[in-house]
Structures are given as structure tokens and as C-alpha cells.
């Protein structure tokens, strides 16, 4: 057999085997083709990306606004101006209790000048206050009032009890006016006084005459 005959025979045998394979196993080619078609024609869905959840920070408490406005000034009773001494006395509130220097002052006003005009009562109070500041007398109201030999109503260093009558309540109000310096006394610099009916012959400077009293420094 020549070389060309042998090559033709091998080619024929190869075609025959290939035909037998295609006839006997049609499913293999079909499945292979379907797999190829499926992988090339049908899109494969990609996994959906879940957006990341960003945690929100908790709401911060709001800072209260700071009031920078200055508070209104407080007006004290020292700033009150009165039209007259009578108005100043009438405006005083009765204290819950009358004791200490207020009681000593009111008692001196009562016993020495309860029948005098308000200006005369205030002048008596002014004498006591001036003495506390003079350096020649005790420094407290009660010590000045109860000083031995100064006021005749004082007995053994003690002030007699006074009924809570209208005249004493007026004396308390006058004492409040004097101690708070709500009204200027016409005997502003006086340190001594005596009744008009007596003539002690004092060699002092006369400051004022008010009602039945004469005031000196």
C-alpha cells in the first residue's frame, strides 16, 4: 500500500469515528452548548452592596443661654426722699420688736420730748447720736442714754418700762428716722440740751431753740 493510500485510509477512519461519537452522544454536545450559551448570554447578577449604616451621634443637650444683662440696682430705704419730717415719720413701719439701741433711743425721745413737736423729738435723738460719735461719750446709743447723771428718767442705770401707746409708737418712728438719717435735724451739731424753764448758765455755743428746749454744743 502506498503512502497516499494509507493517509486516505486514516482520514476515512477518523471521519467515521467522529460521526459515531456525534450520533451516539448527542447530549454531550447539547449540554456543552447550553453551558456555553448560559455562561455567555445570561447575565449573572452581582451581589447587592448593602450601604453602610453610619451611626448617628446622640443629640447633645443645648447649653442654656447666659443672661449677660446686669441686674437692676436695688434701691434701699436710704435713697428715699421725703417732703417733710411728718411724712418721714408716718412712712416708718412698726418693727416686730423694739429692743437694743432702738428701744434706748425711743425711750429717751419719749421721756424727754414726747410733748414736743417732731422737730424737737428729732433734735433730742440727734444729741444722742452726736454723743456716740464725739469721742467724749460712750460709743453706743444705750450706753449714752444710761450714762450716769445724764438723763433724769434713768434709774440706777435702767430705763423704766413704757406702755405701747401712741406717743411711744411716734417716738419709735422718730428714732428710726434719726438712726437711718432720713431727715436733717435743725440741731445737727448739738451735744447738750435743757428745758427753757431752767438757766444752767452753760458756757457753750447755742445751736438752736426748738419747742421747750434749747440745744448747745
What's the number of helices? 7
CATH architecture label of the largest domain:
Orthogonal Bundle
* Helix-and-strand structural type: mainly alpha
Please report which band the strand proportion falls in: under 5%, 5-15%, 15-25%, 25-35%, 35-45% or over 45%.
5-15%
Roughly how much helix do the residues carry, as a percent range? 40-55%
Question: Your description of this structure?
Answer:
Keywords: Hydrolase. α4 (100-113) packs across α5, α4 (100-113) packs across α7 (166-179) and α5 packs across α7. Helix content is 43%, strand content 6%. The chain contains seven helices and three strands. Strands 1-3-2 form a three-stranded antiparallel β-sheet, covered by helices on one side. It folds into two domains: 1-29; 84-216, Cell wall hydrolase SleB, domain 1 (Arc Repressor Mutant, subunit A). It is mainly alpha-helical and 217 residues long.
Structure, briefly:
This protein is mainly alpha-helical and 217 residues long.
What key phrases describe this protein's structure?
about 220 residues; mainly alpha; Arc Repressor Mutant, subunit A; 3-stranded antiparallel sheet; 7 helices; Cell wall hydrolase; hydrolase; hydrolase activity
